[in-house]
Amino acid sequence: SLVGFSGCGKPTADLDPRCHCSAMDVNQVLDRSRELVRKRGIEPLAAAEKAVDELAENHIDSVDEEALLARATLELTGFGVLQPFLDDPSIEELWINRPGELHFANASGHQVVEVDLTAGQLRALVLRMLRHSGRRLDRLTPYVDADLPDGSRLHVVIPDITRKHWSLNIRKFASTQLSLSDLVAGGSLSVEASETLRSAIFERKSILVSGATHSGKTTMLRALLSELDNQTRIVSCEDTFELSLHHRDWVAMRTRPASPEGDREIGLRELVRQALRMRPDRLVIGEVRGAEALDLLVALNSGIPGACTIHANSARAAIEKLLTLPLLAGENITESFLRPTVLTSLDLVIQCKQLATGKRVVSEILEVKSAGA
After folding, report:
1. Cα separation of 35 and 263, whole Å?
2. pLDDT, tens digit, for every residue of 242-291?
3. What are the distances in angstroms from CA 268 to CA 41, 156, 202?
4. 20 exposure class (CB count in 10 Å sphere: 0-12, 13-18, 19+)
5. CA distances from 180 to 48, 187, 199, 348, 362 (A)
6. Beta-strand relationship, 306-311 and 282-285
7. Cβ atoms of residues 16 and 3 within 8 Å
8. How many secondary structure helices (H) and strands (E) does the chain include?
9. What is the pLDDT of residues 142-153, one digit of tens each?
10. Can you tell me the distance from the alpha carbon of 130 to that of 138, in angstroms, rounded to the nearest whole number?
11. What are the C-alpha distances in Å from 243 to residues 55, 175, 230, 353?
């Protein structure tokens, strides 16, 4: 059975008490189920039920049919032992550093549980997760970012980049889109601040959302974009699809890595250039962290309002970072060009922060002015 421990060594709730069955029985049921699906065209759940019935009839010892069926169903239609954690709405993120041990984060903080997962099962599970996105993972490409069917973000790194084990991280997909009013109701944003941001969106101002990891940047970006009416055309550029907007006129694009088959890499800079040819009313970049900052500034300076996120510890630090990142685009870019461009193109910086309690709040809203920002 699973034994849970929190980050400080305290027991946690038993999240997955289902399966107390042998690995041999599970593998036998899975093999028979897949055979029934492949040869007879039976649906996975029906195949699993038939395989469990056959095993129970031929087994000398008693068989926990309910546990076997639950485990086989997760393996055939879901993501195995990870599925209960993916289905748990209280869990925001989960990760694996080594076989048999799973970490996750929820409102109570960092938790750790033991899971029935060998190194081979972890590899097979990761490869099954990657089928949806078409991304690959091997010695030539030992790390990958990909999307799961529900929109969650998957990141995997394997040896020899990691020291020994496959490392997996899943950032859960937020199925509900919060509005600015929802953030006010939840205590993350003041009424006055929400009115300021709503006016900024209505007035087509360009907004930079800043903060550390897990500070609520993407949630804030989605809330801002939810204020746009359906006559506004949104074009977004991301590394993985995280925004998931409920908007009628929205084109979502993501980057693509190079492949051994010869597919060339398509980075954020190329996506931004393509976005500018798509008549956007609002250009969105999921996260600015490289040379694409130059293309963003050129777009903003041409009159297209933008919205994006950036990693920084303060609103002013975010502006300074935006003054630095475009330098990565080439030697001809100078600070004398960048400073007036940034200060005339950007209107607001929203600083997000995660408190010690885990609550995410807006700690600062900075208005950018061309003189003395």
Report:
1. 34
2. 888 989 999 999 998 887 777 889 999 999 999 999 999 999 999 999 99
3. 42, 20, 27
4. exposed
5. 46, 11, 12, 16, 11
6. parallel
7. no
8. 12, 14
9. 999 888 888 889
10. 12
11. 45, 10, 16, 19
Q: Report residue 3: phi and psi, to 5°.
A: -115, 120
Calculate the CA 299 to chain-centre distance.
26
Highest mean pLDDT among 15-19, 60-64, 208-212: 208-212
Give the pLDDT score at 15: 38
Per-residue exposure over 224-252, b if at least 16 CB sit within 10 Å of its own CB, e if not = bbbbbeeebbbbbbbbbbbbbbebeebeb
Question: Which residue, among 243, 247, 339, has the nearest Cα to 284 in the 3D structure?
Answer: 243
Residues 1-15: tens digit of each pLDDT: 233 333 333 333 333
- Taking the C-alpha atoms of residue 9 and residue 278, their distance in angstroms, rounded to an integer, is 53
User: What residues contact 126, with CB distance under 8 A and at least 6 apart?
Assistant: 137, 156, 166, 168
Q: What is the pLDDT of residue 91?
A: 92
The model's pLDDT over 24-73, given as tens digits with 9 standing for 90+, comes to 677 777 777 777 777 777 776 777 777 777 777 777 566 677 777 777 66
Token pair in block for residue 149: 């069917």
Q: H or E stretch including 125?
A: helix 119-130
| Angstrom distance (rounded) from CA 240 to CA 145 | 7
261, 250 in Cβ contact below 8 A? no
Q: Which long-range contacts (CB under 8 A, 24 or more apart) does 86-89 make?
A: 86/148, 86/150, 86/152, 86/170, 86/172, 88/15
Is the Cβ–Cβ distance between 102 and 80 less than 8 Å?
no
Q: Which of 312, 305, 330 is nearest to 297 (CA)?
A: 305
Tell me the Ramachandran region of residue 128: left when phi exceeds 0, alpha when psi lies from -120 to 50, beta otherwise.
Answer: alpha
Cα–Cα distance measured from residue 56 to residue 143, given in angstroms and rounded to the nearest whole number: 42
Question: pTM score, two decimals?
Answer: 0.74
At residue 83, the 3 state secondary structure works out as helix
CA–CA dist 122, 99 (Å, integer): 7
The SS3 assignment for 352 reads: strand
